[in-house]
Amino acid sequence: MYRVRADDLRSFLAALLAGCGASDEEADEVADHLVEANLTGHDSHGALRAPGYIEKIDAGEMIPRAAVTIERETPTTAVVDGHWGFGQPASRVAMRLCIEKAKAHAIACVAVRNANHMGRVGYYTGMASREGMVGLGCVNLHGASPCVAPFGGLDRRLPTNPFSIAYPTDREPDFLMDMTSSVVAEGKVRYRHTVGRPVPEGWIIDHAGAPATDTSLFYEAPFGALLPMGGVVAYKGFALSLAIEGLAGGLSGAPCSNGTAERHGNACWYVAIRIDAFGPLADFRRRVGEMIDYVKSSRKRPGVAEILYPGEPEHRTRKSRLEAGIPLDEPTWEWLIAKAARLGVACPKAAHKPEA
Ligand SMILES: NC(=O)c1ccc[n+]([C@@H]2O[C@H](COP(=O)([O-])OP(=O)(O)OC[C@H]3O[C@@H](n4cnc5c(N)ncnc54)[C@H](O)[C@@H]3O)[C@@H](O)[C@H]2O)c1
Predict the structure, then answer these.
(1) pTM
(2) Binding-site residues, ligand 1, Cβ < 6 A
(3) Which atom of ligand 1 is nearest to the CA of 118?
(4) Can you give the CATH number for the domain in which 48 is found?
(5) How many domains does the chain have?
């Protein structure tokens, strides 16, 4: 593993993306998103994604400097088209629109289509909670890239379809739930595959449906599948995934998973709800703060040091990684260094120091 300071990684990734044709603003925005994912502990959505983004740019599938346009609009809704640019600017525009419309009308929702991978949904629902609103977001894979078996099934039929809800509290941090409808994000399996580690039991099955931990049974033919979230009640994760297909794919006009879509991307659906339309914001923040204290005060099961609430693990990891730097796996880092050398982009020095 290598360790790089967040600021160094951010400017390095931005320089690489700009070297591949992104505008300075896009490069900064995407690099910040990836580094925030690393800072919050979601390495599956951090710098690990940069090689894939750059390969897509080189293949003409991710279009730098693409416009983000509003295709349909009412006072409380809109459909945004990302024109197959980076997914992050399209999601930012969509959530910003939600927030501005909700300021005027208490609630608004905006769908996104024709966008590439937008990273972490919570990055955008958090925009709403910082404005005193409830933020909701969900994402499908634009109909493509199924890797999750339906409840009771063997074949890949659905993507990992994530869902996020964020709201402000008077505790630190705000509540931020951001999770896949599968056991975990596919990137977490990919990360373990990249660094040569097995996955825990209960994440994947092999082609014949037997429980598996060897990631090659997922990435090599005949392909196994990820399981829907929920263990023995995985029909709940499966139900959530189908609901997300309708909201993100159905409402945006992007395909839902149907076995024919070929272009891998993200279709999204975002909502912002103004809390003070329902009563004083301070009362809401206090009520949910008291609830958090109450929940955390439970007796703990053996081996559990502390009860955490959604958003808290990320907040803590962010604090420690801002201090200690971001750990990066060797294959990703070496790919980025090699690309930087070809583009004439300078690498951060600290990155050359392998960990003991
Ligand atoms: N763009 C895409 O196509 C795409 C697809 C899938 C996932 N994603 C993103 O991947 C990321 C990871 O998703 P995931 O489901 O693998 O993450 P995960 O399994 O780590 O679950 C994350 C959620 O669980 C909470 N959590 C984790 N540990 C906890 C604990 N001990 N106590 C209480 N709460 C806890 C976190 O705060 C967070 O809300 C998300 O940000 C998601 O948006 C994106």
Answers:
(1) 0.96
(2) 42, 45, 117-122, 139, 141, 160, 162, 164, 176-180, 184-185, 188, 266, 308-311, 313-314
(3) 1
(4) 1.10.1530.10
(5) 2
